[in-house]
Amino acid sequence: MAKAKPSRFKAPFLKRITLPVPPEDAPGYAFKLPLFKDGFEAKFECAITIIVGENGSGKSTVLEAIAHHCGFNVRGGNRNQGADNHADVATIAEALRFGWLPRVTDGFFMRAESFVTFIDGLEATTRDPDAYAGPEKVWYSYGGKSLHERSHGEAFLALFSNRFGRRGVYLLDEPEAALSPDRQLALMRILHELAAKGEAQIIMATHSPILMFQPGAQVLALEEGALVPRSPGELRHVKLYARFLAAPEKMAADVVRDEPDATDDDGVG
Predict the structure, then answer these.
(1) Is the dihedral of CA 226, 42, 237, 59 positive or negative?
(2) Rounded to whole angstroms, how far apart are CA atoms 226 and 200?
(3) Residue 112 per-residue DSSP state
(4) Most buried residue, 43, 85, 195, 256, by most Cβ within 10 Å?
(5) Do residues 200 and 164 lie in contact, with contact meaning Cβ atoms separated by under 8 Å?
(6) What's the mean per-residue pLDDT of the chain?
(7) Can you tell me the distance from the alpha carbon of 118 to that of 96, in angstroms, rounded to the nearest whole number?
(8) Where does the pLDDT of residue 62 fall: very low under 50, low under 70, confident under 90, or very high at 90 and above?
């Protein structure tokens, strides 16, 4: 049998997301976010895109909208878990316009906050005697054994190492939540290897200054209702960590004394 030819299209497959200015009475919380209320555009120019912003700025909402559009469960998972009919997410996702070249249908939405629930769902499948696949098949794509038999961080890395090898779009929402600094560096290596193959597009929202320096990644910072390209060194997250590590005792003392300038920074991000 002739060997399949590799596609001439390399990641990124999702090139652009746009949203016209929504009407003032647009339903749902997402349209009230500064990121969406005046229209929206995001361009993906690299196999890995990192989205950085404060809590509540809309990072997760962007990933949820892409997940819904791709048919992934917006609580975490892939197409096999089915789409979660979250009304607000569906409303913003259906208003957005997605530009693909080519359109890919595989991938995964990894949400740190709901990852245990995802594992529980897989466990329930393996216990069902009428399930379409036995335990050895269910867990094959996750390293050959139950993710509950690993630590939280080990389960994360098992998912990244084993499930993310297929051609597709992979969405990561704060993956550093269960990863030590060493494990974050291990994730950096895994993502670099995936991107080098040209088969995986990775869009990651993170607060980790380590992951913000992912080699070859495009960094988009949420600033004043827009996604702005930045270098990692310009980001407030990075500058704040650098300031703290330069004088940890002094900065910690200033914070607990509620000094007004303890965490202020005039830099970008």
Answers:
(1) positive
(2) 25
(3) G
(4) 195
(5) yes
(6) 82
(7) 27
(8) very high
Asked if residue 170 lies in contact with residue 66, where contact means CB atoms within 8 angstroms, the answer is no
Write the Ramachandran bin of 199: left for phi over 0, alpha for psi from -120 to 50, otherwise beta.
Answer: alpha
Token representation of residue 229: 């390209």
Is residue 49 within a helix (H) or strand (E), and if so which, with residue range?
A: strand 48-52
Checking if the pLDDT of 84 tops 90, the result is: no
Question: Do residues 95 and 19 make contact, with C-beta atoms less than 8 angstroms apart?
Answer: yes
In this structure, how many other beta carbons lie within 10 angstroms of the beta carbon of residue 172? 27
**DSSP state letter for 39:** B
Position 268 scores a pLDDT of 45
Closest CA to 123 of 149, 159, 143: 149
Residue count (the chain): 269
Q: What is the token pair recorded at 260?
A: 């007004």
